[in-house]
Amino acid sequence: MKKWVLPALILLLVISHFPLRAQIRENFDLQLFIESLFNTQEESLNYEDLYERLLLLYETPVNINTASIEDLRGLYILSDPQIDSLKAYIARNGKLLTEYELQLVPEFDLATIEKILPFITINAQDLTTDNRPLWQRILSERNHYFIYRYEQTLEKKRGFDPPESPTDTRYAGSRGKQYLRYRVAKPGDFSFGFTTEKDPGEAIVWDPDSKRYGMDFWSAHAMLENNNQWRKVIVGDYQLQFGQGLIFGAGFAIGKGSETINTLERVNLGIRPYTSVLEGGFLRGVAATYSLSEKVALTAFFSRLKQDAALQEDEETFEQYFSSIQTSGFHRTPSEIDNKKQITETVAGANLHFKVNGRTQLGFVISNNNFNIPIQRSNQGYNLFEFSGQSNSNGSVYANFNINKFRIFGEAGVSKSGGKGGVFGLTTTLSPRVDFALLWRNYSRDFHALRGASFAEGSRNINESGIYWGLKYTLNRSLFVTAYYDSFQFPWLRYRVNAPSEGNDYLLRVNYLPNSKVHSYIQYRKKTREENATETDTGNTIIRPGVRQQVLVNFDYRLAPGLSLKSRVQYSHFQLYTEKNDGYAFIQDAVYDFGKLILSGRIALFDTEGANNRQYAYERDVLYSFSIPAYSGEGVRNYILIQYKASRKLDLWARWARTRYYDRKTIGSGLETIESNQRTDVKFQIRYKLR
Hints:
The protein is mainly beta. The protein is built from 9 helices and 33 strands. It has a 24-stranded antiparallel β-barrel. A two-stranded parallel sheet has the order 1-2. A two-stranded antiparallel ribbon has the order 6-7. Strand 11 (283-291) and strand 12 (296-307) form a beta hairpin.
């Protein structure tokens, strides 16, 4: 077939679908693609890690003819049967000659091809090693740029007013937020960069005594890859992700969302550069991965990071301690400046990874955390089993493999306290139309994984057990349904929950994509979780189920070349004991692409009651910045985003966003108070590519 029939078929496909590749690249919206993976927003999340990794793949696509199974799974687009089908097709017919040949791969439909095209390239020739000196490879790399960003709230906050008395606290610096970033990177070869930021209210000052050196936060890294037996060597700031993230989970985790199957298993990323401006959760030092053989790799890491904390003194022993690490990153007031970099955390450990084949992997992780000052938790019942002291150790074993049509993965670990944690799952294709996933987790109340980020209902891997069921049913190329059901238990007290508790969470989403111009869905979600409530007659605290129901209706459509519209309605209802309230939002977006100039905007009307009915909706933003504000109260929100490609090397962004409230005369509290019913934020960004 490969000699003449296949080229003839490809030619016909090229003739009939010639606009496919160009249209996909022209109309592709990376931020919208990421939003589709995370479609159950409940809080403002930081997407920088995932966005940057996908942006790097977008700018330097994966060669699909030589990509590993792990590379393909890391796109969060292809299912295991699709990856198997692609690998089998290449093994049977040879390397793909064009993107259009993907339409001949069994299990691949047009929707999947549209999603994957922006992240891949097809080259019939094998990749050749670039033997030029490192400095030449850096200077010639096209993913080589500077970014500068400035943003500010136009309405003045109380913290910037002159003090009314000598004892009044005010912010030390100016109202603007500034961000500077440099990065040059080539996947599989090298990555160098630094990021620096100053938040509103922080001063740009050189004062070593207060640990301030110009801009408030600095982060930098240098990484080399695939240098003989050294797979990766990194110096500076980095993150780790091994196994299912039980001990180390790097940066992003998709977890529960509208993609109920493909995002469940974690990808073993190992060492990753840290480039975000979140001032906590990363490691600072050196890490390296060395190939002991073709199938065995050893990773060792060491970190010493100073972090923010409010130091206290024991009344009896007069020894210092702290109750928690502060991760807000704000250093605006005298107390915030005093808390800067008060403790030192040292982390050391290793990972031994065995890659039996593309589908079977096994590994071990050991680590030790040590603080120079002990943690001493507050005297609350929910803190009884939390980590305290100066030293913590962890160990875990993880594996993933295939048995017939089942993909099985998991990780189990233990902490110094004796607490145990585990997460185990499987995915499979029950029929050509039905995909299924199952995940079980159990984290004991004294399991302490300080940098763990595996699948969980809570924000950490502690005091939780549960079972997740995921399903995807494909009726045809235009209509498919995704759903999950997650039941969970908390065997010990939690913050604001004065007894062991439980809950469940389920989602049903019907997706309709009649053609490449129309994407629509309707989604229903119901989450039940027990919480503290106040008994009406006695005023006593009781535990009752809090139930939140949410309905989303979303319709994306392309009216004409360059013009896209999105209409969205969100409604939620919350009930806890005698409390009942509702919230809704009506949202209309528009994007017009003129080529070098892209305009986008939104008008949103919202009316919500109580904190549990806040409406979260993703907004388009400047490159490397994400906006998922909480629509709370009664009001209207608008934004306009302008992106202009001034030249091949220069890109400019400007963003204006305003929220006007009809149920209040002031916004915020404390030093963040705005004496107005509206808040206006402006943002400007410039990116200059050196190539």
